[in-house]
Amino acid sequence: MLRRDRAGRRGGDVAIYVRMTTPSQSVWTYSADNPTYELLWAHIGDMFIGVLYHPPRPLYTPDSLLDYIKACIDEITHNHPTAFLVLAGDFNQRSHDELVERTVLTQIVKQPTRGANILDRIYVLCPLQYDTVRVVKLVVCSDHQAVMVCTASQPVRPNKQKFMGTHRKITPTQHAIFLQYISNHEDLFENHTDTLNTQSEFDLFYNIVTVLLDDFYPQSTVTFTSRARTT
């Protein structure tokens, strides 16, 4: 999901990356959408996530941006009163006090994200939704830091399960012993019956091969688990 500003500037791109396996994902569009504001909304499950880029020299007034954000949030909360709401992005030097007052959102990033300033912020409707907020160094070349948040509800680890199986260990030493045995018993597969019955001949061959396989390459029991494998 990606959106550019009206001038099509690449530096102002905003994007949201969502796993393809995430259910119920779509782009949400405000009824009075205005592409002047670089704001993209995604509706994911019971959440609405907005991503904003506020450039240092915007084409709009700061107050108009606040009005637009509040109008978007009012429409979302009116149509989806129980939805979780998140607004994140690069706000540059824009003070967050007015945004908090107008939208009743809470800013949860407390560490600087660029120099000594908190430019990259995350606003939420429910502060208890996230219990971990971290600012970490980006792996790409940038003077901004990355912000990571984790939900309060941690995933439940499934109980470790065990599975039994069989395995034939094969080594060069076993091959050498087997080949030596075969070379000393060349008559092993000679016809030992007086019948020309194909099925009987095959059954005899199969029995000999099975005995050789079990003698030289014996089976061992293997235990598999959902987290590791041991023998």
Explained architecture:
With 231 residues, the protein is of the alpha+beta class. The chain is built from four helices and 13 strands. It has two domains: 2-151, Endonuclease/exonuclease/phosphatase (Deoxyribonuclease I, Chain A), CATH 3.60.10; 162-230, no CATH class. It has helices at 62-79, 97-103, 172-183, 198-216, and strands at residues 2-3, 14-15, 25-28, 38-44, 47-53, 84-90, 106-107, 120-124, 130-136, 146-151, 162-168, 219-225, 229-230. The strands form four sheets. It has a six-stranded mixed beta sheet with strand order 3-4-5-6-8-7, with no helix packed on it. Strands 11-12-13 form a three-stranded antiparallel beta sheet, with no helix packed on it. Strands 1-2 form a two-stranded antiparallel sheet. Strand 4 and strand 5 form a beta hairpin. The longest helix is centred in the C-terminal third of the chain and has 19 residues, at 198-216. The protein starts with a strand and ends with a strand.
Strand order of the largest sheet: 3-4-5-6-8-7
For the record, the CATH class of the largest domain is Alpha Beta
Helical fraction equals 10-25%
> N-to-C terminal Cα separation, in Å?
47 Å
For CATH, the homologous superfamily of the largest domain is named as Endonuclease/exonuclease/phosphatase
> What is the H/E string?
EEEEEHEHEEEEEHHEE
CATH topology of the largest domain: Deoxyribonuclease I, Chain A
Q: Helical element count?
A: 4
Q: What is the approximate shape?
A: elongated
Per-chain topology:
Blueprint: E1 2-3, E2 14-15, E3 25-28, E4 38-44, E5 47-53, H1 62-79, E6 84-90, H2 97-103, E7 106-107, E8 120-124, E9 130-136, E10 146-151, E11 162-168, H3 172-183, H4 198-216, E12 219-225, E13 229-230
Parallel strand pairs: 5-6
Antiparallel strand pairs: 1-2, 3-4, 4-5, 6-8, 7-8, 9-10, 11-12, 12-13
